Amino acid sequence: MTYNxxxxxxxNQRPSFERHGAAGYKEGLRNTIILDTHLxxxxxxxxxxxxxxxxxxxxxxxxxxxFLQICGYKVGLYTSPHLVDFSERIRVNGIPISQDxxxxxxxxxxxxxxxxxxxxxxxxxxxxxxxxxxxxVDIAVIxxxxxxxxDCTNIISPILSVITNIGLDHTQFLGDTLAKVAGEKAGIIKxxxxxxxxxxxxxxxKVFEQKAKDENAPIIFADDDNMIESYKIGKDGFxxxxxxxxxxxxxxxxxxxxxxxxxxxxxxxxxxxxxxxVSMGSDERSREMVNGEIRKAMMxxxxxxxxxxxxxxxKEHPYVVCDTGHNAHGWTYLSKQIATTPCxxxxxxxxMLEDKDVNAVMKMLPKNAIYYLSQVECQRAMxxxxxxxxxxxxxxxxxxxxxxxxxxxxAIKAASHNDMVFxxxxxxxxxxxxxxxxx
Length: 439
Known about the structure:
Blueprint: H1 3-12, H2 17-20, H3 30-38, E1 47-52, H4 57-70, E2 75-78, E3 90-92, E4 95-96, H5 99-116, H6 120-134, E5 139-143, E6 160-163, H7 171-174, H8 178-185, E7 195-197, H9 202-215, E8 219-221, E9 228-233, E10 239-243, E11 247-251, H10 258-274, H11 284-305, E12 312-315, E13 319-323, H12 328-340, E14 346-350, H13 358-364, E15 370-373, H14 384-393, E16 398-400, H15 404-414, E17 420-424, H16 427-437
Parallel strand pairs: 1-5, 1-6, 2-5, 6-7, 7-8, 13-17, 14-15, 14-17, 15-16
Antiparallel strand pairs: 2-3, 3-4, 9-10, 10-11, 12-13
Helix pairs in contact: 1-5, 3-6, 4-10, 4-11, 8-9, 12-13
């Protein structure tokens, strides 16, 4: 079996949510628990941190992993989706899982997987947990795939839980109100285990507080203690934070939405200090050391963990940037940053998935831009005809193209030296773009 055959087997064993949407969604933990038992509960051999949220969980997961690496730990990192290659989902100290291991795992476990009719995400999660055990990681940062309560990852007993924020996304599965979505995300809160909540509303706070009370879990609301006193995009393109007790700290993840993520991360690190995972001594030398580790993590998270697609600058002239923001909650920040980025003209390569609130996003898109519309290669994609009709409805000047890469190529041809080209609307848009860019 080749690596390509192994990954195709994983995708085709049962429809995956990422490729097929609702048809690939599988509720419940039965198969996950059976697989976990079969593999002898590998996640019990290392510490874990569990990260959920509508947006920002990828950035938070990668930055926490980078920080723990700098602190000297061997760190597993499990995230989704991947952008270019399947192996991006499972990393140890930033290095993707080997193709040989993926093939070996599938060949070894194929008969058992077939007997369960397991889903793509069930098998991939089991593979990640087993790989981390065999690699003898000290700690693993585990990102929730979808929701929380019934997500495949929710069999772990973490030392810390993090919920970044709540937005209306995947409402067909998680509920049509923020409180209902919060109830699903709150499912990762475990008995006597601290949980950091990044952002909240009055309704979601009540849900989190009740769940934490039921579990006797210490709960920390990061928004109640914002350590980010101010922030701005520096001349070098990095975000510059003024952080309480730390002063100016630069971050390579320069989307303005990262300010909320960074405050959440800082509170998570404080909890790791209280748990004794990292040294947060009261003396000045200890504080300087941990502050230095935080600074390094924020500036080198991409190189340490392989994170891509978060306001990723591809080129300076014209200014080319891509971002995986894919829902209305994420675009409340993205639309502002696109609209306020200094440039002569904006060119936006754009597409979205059918099951997202495309209308809400279209309302936020800047009018003073030219749109290059296409349809991503995914069964969940919104058709180019529907996308163009919506662009007409919201008075967005646009042209239509057969592929994301063709749209990008035309945008680059049209862009002048001081123009901006933005590529986004979905993780799949960025995935197609980065894959072609690397060829």
